[in-house]
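Lab notebook, bench 4. The sequencing result for the construct came back, and we need a structural model before the next group meeting so we can plan mutations. Quick request posted to the team channel:

Model the 3D structure of this chain.
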Amino acid sequence: MKNTIKIVAGLAVAFGFVSCDPEFENSVEDAGFYSNGTADLSRYVAVGNSLTAGFADGALYITGQENSYPNIMAQQFAFAGGGEFTQPLMDDNLGGLLLGGNQITENRFVLAVGPNGNPGPVRLEGNPTTEITTSATGPFNNMGVPGAKSFHLVAPGYGNVAGVPSGAANPYFARFATSDNATVLGDAVSLSPTFFSLWIGNNDILSYATSGGVGVYQQGNQNPLTYGPNDITDPGFFANVYNQEVAALAAGASGGVLVNIPDVTSIPYFTTVPAQSIPLDAATAGAVNAQFALFNTQVLPGLAQAGFITAEEAASRQINFSAGANFPIIMDDDLTDLTQVLQGPPFNLPPQTAGLLGMLRQANANDLIVLPAASVLGTTPDPNNPLGVVGVSIPLSDGFVLTGTEQNRVAAATASYNQTIQAAAVANNLAFVDARSALAQLRTGIPFDGGVLTSTFVTGGAFSLDGVHPTPRGYAYTANLIIDAINNKYDATIPMVNVGAYGTITAANNP
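Done. Here's the predicted structure in token form:
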């Protein structure tokens, strides 16, 4: 059975997208027209994670950094008293990192036509040149560190090269940390910012979501040393750390801006692959249903009658295919694990079969299938078993699915974090940007001079080829949102940019 997911069909038009020189939404012929209001923009420092750094297309590279929202903002600040803005630029546009000459992160994505004739993201070939043991010469105004969670900003040694191989340190921060024991926040504060932006907290949720919920929602645990890499940060701990960071940055600044956390499940990484992604004809659907007949009619009812699962769970685990588009079968680690029960009497199933059925169910409309599943669903991974089709007779692994239960955990943490962020803005008299609402608007489209910006994968213009981070055009839109909030809060008249003048995705023949 051929791969049934054709998420990039018709995307060849994307090859027509090209970068172009930025233009201002407001005229800048007379620089004296613009005012910084009550904000001192002479030393702007941006603190955050990959979104602040300008990460895009699954990597950090020069062009992405040059189009980061803080750099776009700093260019506009220059018309209203803003000073120099420096960034720890990578050494090339490939995006990979080296440690001792060995590549430790992948190159960026570009759009290319694959062997099957469909356009889609592929990693750009080439040998990167950015060696993390060779420190970038600072200081740097852009303190965005890809991968950083809220508590990482105050963690000593987070930029120690020696800790990178074990995951104890961050390779991006290792490039420009002022010392082995430095913290991101400490280095940022040492610059004595007159104005700052802080956008942090996305990764405290995102890694849980992108891993398909392979992690723990930490509640009441304020010791990050005990957290797994994909765990959701305890909301109480997030609040403590976040308020500490805001206080430190605001202490000597004329002002700043705080940005809240979008609904991560609204990004293309979660919205591109349809939940009903398995097309079957009537004959094939009937044959598959026959394979699950005993499971549906005897095993599940028997388990419910014996009290191992509820009748409601038994009903939710029924497998039924029909002619047309179907939901794939999946593994759900929030279900009761029936593996051991199924190996015993009266079922006496072989270990492999029992393991297959132990947490099996069919996906439903509440589940989100993540973007990487597109290359897996409908495939036959074992050439010796042509009937072993992923999503039909082989379940899609839990890491490819964010279930409704897992989405509820993400939503609860997001809501709590956002309450903290908005309260901190009010308490410290800072500008506030509701990025969550802005992302929601992208689902239906944001008009600009020359088109409409949407969150549709590849063709929408807002998101890069990793389905998570913005394109230059998306970052320009973000910069405008923040500039607008600064203007309103500090009575400034900083000019905004024309988002349509910024590029979107890059084709393989246009590196």
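The first strand starts at residue 23 and ends at 24.
Will bring this to the meeting.
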